[in-house]
Amino acid sequence: MNTNKSKKLFEQARQIIPGGVNSPVRAFKSVGGNPLFIEKGVGSKIYDVDGNEFIEYIGSWGPHLFGHNPPFIKKALLKSIENGTSFGAPTELEVKMARLITNLVPSVDMVRMVNSGTEATMSAVRTARGYTGKEKFVKFEGCYHGHADYFLIKAGSGALTLGVPTSPGVTKGNAEDTLLADYNNIDSVKRLVKANKNKIAAVIIEPVAGNMGVVPADNNFLKELRQICDEEKIILIFDEVMTGFRVSQKGAQGIYNVKPDMITFGKIIGGGLPVGAFGGKKEIMEMVAPAGPVYQAGTLSGNPLAMAVGYAALTYIKDHPEVYDVLEKKSAYLENGFRNNMKKLNKSFAINRSGSMMTLFFNEGNVNNFQAAVKSDTVLFGKYFHEMLARGIYLAPSQFEAVFISTAHTTADFDKTITANFESLKAII
Ligand code: KE4
User: Fold this and answer.
1) Measured in angstroms, how far is the CA atom of residue 62 from the centroid of ligand 1?
2) What is the band of 163 on the pLDDT scale with cuts at 50, 70, 90?
3) Domains along the chain?
């Protein structure tokens, strides 16, 4: 495969952009080799600057539920730009977007738009602290909530992939107020609550973790978490930046029937443009400026272009709930293809899937938490990644990420992927 243009661009990029990329996981550091520079995306395919075509499963890390550039998204963007890009003043579309989200998601009475998942989670924790008057909060090892200082305490995703359990530059003060629990281990939460009586403002969790690879919460775990938060007056925050409108029309809370007090969104609600959001109960959200004293702001929050695309995406989801049955069938087909391959090869690597997000772990055990996930063979994953790339399949360049299936992926795409998976596994085992 000719990748000369990408190589040249990467050499230039590394001189003027840290690591040559604007987000670490894109640099292929954990799989080796040089990243490909992408020129365009159409449906389930992306094309790099050297003209190579790939069936791709990153979907821009989650936003592309309908594949690249679906006509209805493109139309909404082109129509919106006729009126300009951004006004820094309220627009009707922001009201319509907020109403659509509050109608679609039962636990959201009010919602504030921001520009990234990090802003959403950072603001949600600050609001929970302001509302409760308490300072500490609990996160789970292996969960990633973006790069706000107080989350980069043994974060998952990028930090985990980069093997840096805590990031330099994060102060002791931040680390002191961030408590770490074990995913799917309710006793670890109880121990923290007991040791920090009346000091914990919030628990934030990915209800289906996607940043240690896909690790769904055990059924009772979220219910027990909800109960502890009720008893201890702790705000339960579901970080659904990845799972929101991905795993069901109501996100993960739609499949677990557990209502959080606050919820964060990103990715799909922006349809590929920079958007995040945080929302929840009215009495909590009324704490947010200018309604209340918890300051939060953003020059481009709720900007017309992002709202136009996000509104088109969520309107499609509202009008087509059957899209989740379609995604379930497509995703199950791919998962079963991989499982059949492993049977033929007499291997039993773990596959975790929730709806249209899935991870193949190079790990023969059951992966239901961070400690299990990190036992995966990342060297073998790196070899697998490149074998698949050489066969025209572009996966997430890290063992600790999810692959995303879209409505644009066809059976022909899956059959090609399943064949590539078989040949790649055979080549590396
Ligand atoms: P952003 O700030 O990257 O928009 O969102 C942070 C975030 C928050 N919460 C969850 C559950 C997330 O998955 C993310 C971001 N996800 C990663 C992919 N695992 C973004 C990819 C990247 O860092 O480039």
Assistant:
1) 9
2) very low
3) 4-69+322-428 (3.90.1150.10), 71-319 (3.40.640.10)
